[in-house]
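#structure-requests
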Amino acid sequence: MKTSLMSPIKKTLVITAILALSCLIYGFKAGIDELQWLNWSNKCLSESYAPVVDAKLKKWEINLTNDHFLRLRKTYQHGRQEYFSFNLHRLNDIEYMGNDTTGTLEFTTLADDIIVQTYEDPKGDIDSMSTVLELPVKNMSQPRLDSLKSALKYFKEKEL
């Protein structure tokens, strides 16, 4: 009785094709999910934020929260704090002035939607609202800027 070599070769090809197709289908995601956008945005903002050199600035924190608030807190020596916060749903525009090395990100909201507060200030605590928040940044290349804008747009358009 003759046996064909074609049968084992066909089986191997069919199995290989099925495995390759499965890897192709399940190996790629349709897009970036919310947690990935959030983590990337926080990493980008933290790495890019370049506070003005001030010997009195003790520490700073910038983050995008999972409820879509962008928050910046600066703490100075002797306890004075400045706090800025706004919900991305109120974001109107993001402008960048500068080059790949240094520049300023300017966030503009629809109205006076940016909370500005100071604590432990010798001149007194201040609570006010603003329409513009300017962030000094470094190493903001065009692809990085475009990606950050895409992430913030994603959160702006996302329903709570």
